Amino acid sequence: MRKRRAPGPEQVWAECRERLRHLRLRGDVEAYADGELTGARRAMVAGHIARCWACSGTLQLLQLVKASLRRTPGRAPVSLASVRLRRYAGRIADAGPTGPGGPAR
């Protein structure tokens, strides 16, 4: 059985550099997916995506999410005011009439 050697400083530094590159490129991959990059930066990110399975997977995921959002029907979010009005109307309906014309005791 062969003994495994600990990684040398060169290998550790190379791994650290690669991790730092991925952290810096994270925003660029998102911008690439949105079509916001131009020129040399776009070419550099495209080259990295072609070589890197992690970044190409991130790009594919972003593209799938965008396609899914485009296919769903556009729905406006429910306004907070309408939610509050419905909740208030429900409380009034549950409580029954109140005030001067309320139920007799």
Describe this protein with a few key phrases.
105 residues, mainly alpha, 4 helices, transcription, Znf_put, Anti_sigma_zinc_sf, Putative zinc-finger domain-containing protein
Radius of gyration: 29 Å
Q: Distance N terminus to C terminus?
A: 93 Å
Helix content: over 70%
Low-confidence stretches: none
Shape: elongated
DSSP E strands, number: 0
Secondary-structure element series: HHHH
Average pLDDT for all residues: 77
Task: Kindly describe this structure.
This protein is an all-alpha fold and 105 residues long. It has a domain at 9-71. 70% of the residues lie in helices and 0% in strands. The chain contains 4 helices and no strands. Helix 2 (39-51) crosses helix 3.
What's the structural blueprint in terms of helices and strands?
Blueprint: H1 9-34, H2 39-51, H3 53-71, H4 80-95
Helix pairs in contact: 1-2, 1-3, 2-3
Question: What's a concise summary of this model?
Answer:
This is Putative zinc-finger domain-containing protein. The chain is an all-alpha fold and 105 residues long.
